[in-house]
Amino acid sequence: MTTETDAVRMTDAAVAHLREREADHLAQFDEFLRIPSVSADPARNADVQRAAEWIVAELERLGIEQATIHPTSAHPIITAEWLHAGPDAPTVLVYCHYDVQPSDPDDEWVRPPFEPRFEDERVYARGAGDDKGQLFMHLKAAEAWMTTAGRLPLNLRFFFEGDEEVGSGPIETFIDEHADLLRADVCVVSDSDTFDDHGTPGIGYGLRGIAYWEVRVSGPAHDVHSGQYGGGVDNPANVLARMLASLTDADGRVTVPGFYDRVRDLTAEERAAYATLPFDEAEWRAETGVPAAMDGERGYTLQERLSARPTFDINGIWGGYSGAGAKTIIPAWAAAKISTRLVPDQDFREIEQSMKAHLESIAPPTVTASVQIIHGGAPAITPLDHPGIPPVARALEAGFGTAPLFQRSGGSVPVVAALDAQLGLKTLMVGFANPSGNFHAPNEWMSLRNIRDGMASIVHLWAELGAMKADDLRA
């Protein structure tokens, strides 16, 4: 029987192992980051597979069992488990993703995105924070326990995917078909950030959902001379610009009919909680490089709009001539990628269809408009009275030396809602990336402090949860 003194001693030994092996771990991290596992680029499919194989080899080296690469309709999913803590001990499912965003524009990187740069107590590389860095931290925390104690203090299952950055398309089918590999008392997801860049950890209790489309407007059969045909041939780029501009009003509210019908508004308690969070708008502007924050929806603060309200964004727009000098044409077509971030209780499937129908309905008869649904995911909320919240808070304070703050994330992690809907599995969102770490942008980075303290926090978290009974952890 493990006493409280034994548990403290074993936890301290595991944390000490992390400190002693830091140089070796960073060398391994460098190796992992060099694999360009870009899920959106078909030319990188072999690299995504190679990243999955790297993870499985590491899991097997650590003594984690049943490490398996599962083919899917897109990129592989990895599962593994260590279930020797006993039937009364909690079982925790750990989720991260190993795919990364495209690196473009590559010419804005100080160093190539898959050649990691360690300097100024940071590591710069695509995937450093989102999400290969956080996945790697979980591997090293498991290694620390297995090396120093020869065991884990609880039952762990691992669930790593390679399609999160392109919408987690295979996830729902995989959960349905492999529920036996994912059953647990709670899920821990590390695909988010700390509260700030100054060492304050965060506990996420909400995620926005997402819906994403590509819209294409076609006109003449080929580019035509704007002098000969201007005024007679409707310009697809002009039409697309007008269509996209009509999707929001002057306050930034989405104009698609029914878009806000299901939106769950903030309670008075939630708004009071937002008001107590430390937030320096001047610092936020400096981090983003914008001269001012947009006005946005009336009646909501900037903090509320950043994570608790729906949004609309044009993610890319192209068509016509963009080379040097002038070329006076009416382009044959123009296209854009657009997305919305969604909040409880919006249904992303309803939003996908209503946006598609609306865009097709507002296109004038002078052009043809087609809308392709790219991907979507549901929003999620974890109750703040979940029994896993106190042990997470204690573990983060032990690792970072500072009590965590609670936050809702403006981003999306589709698996969280899917696990809840399909398995009734609640999620504790424990993230370690830096909030200003340039996710999805050039020169992505993560601080070495967050890596060190985050690994230590995970070690403490397994000890905290391992001291509980499985029945006590279930919400």
Give a brief outline of the structure.
The protein folds into 2 domains: 4-208 and 379-473, Aminopeptidase, CATH 3.40.630; 209-263 and 310-377, Alpha-Beta Plaits (2-Layer Sandwich), CATH 3.30.70. The mean pLDDT is 96.
**Secondary structure: helix percent:** 25-40%
Low-pLDDT stretches are: none
| Bulk shape | globular
What's the pLDDT, averaged over the residues? 96
Structural class: alpha+beta
Write down the domain tally. Answer: 2
CATH superfamily membership of the largest domain, which one? Zn peptidases
Q: Tell me the radius of gyration.
A: 24 Å
Calculate the terminal CA-CA distance, rounded to whole Å: 26 Å
Question: The biggest beta sheet, please?
Answer: 9 strands, mixed
Strand content: 15-25%
CATH class annotation of the largest domain = Alpha Beta
The number of strands is 18
Predict the CATH topology of the largest domain. Answer: Aminopeptidase
* Level-2 CATH architecture of the largest domain: 3-Layer(aba) Sandwich
Number of helices: 16
How does this model look, in words?
The chain is an alpha+beta fold and 475 residues long. It has two domains: 4-208 and 379-473, 3-Layer(aba) Sandwich (Aminopeptidase); 209-263 and 310-377, 2-Layer Sandwich (Alpha-Beta Plaits). Helix content is 36%, strand content 21%. It has 16 helices and 18 strands. It has helices spanning 4-20, 22-33, 45-62, 132-149, 171-177, 179-182, 226-229, 236-245, 268-276, 281-288, 302-307, 348-362, 389-400, 414-423, 448-466, 470-473; strands at 65-70, 77-82, 91-97, 117-119, 122-124, 155-161, 186-189, 202-207, 209-218, 224-225, 311-318, 329-330, 333-342, 368-377, 380-381, 405-409, 427-430, 445-447. The strands form four sheets. Strands 1, 2, 3, 6, 7, 8, 15, 16 and 17 form a nine-stranded mixed β-sheet that branches. The chain has a four-stranded antiparallel β-sheet with strand order 11-13-9-14. α2 (22-33) runs antiparallel to α4 (132-149). The longest helix is centred in the C-terminal third of the chain and has 19 residues, at 448-466. The radius of gyration is 24 Å and the shape is globular. The mean pLDDT is 96.
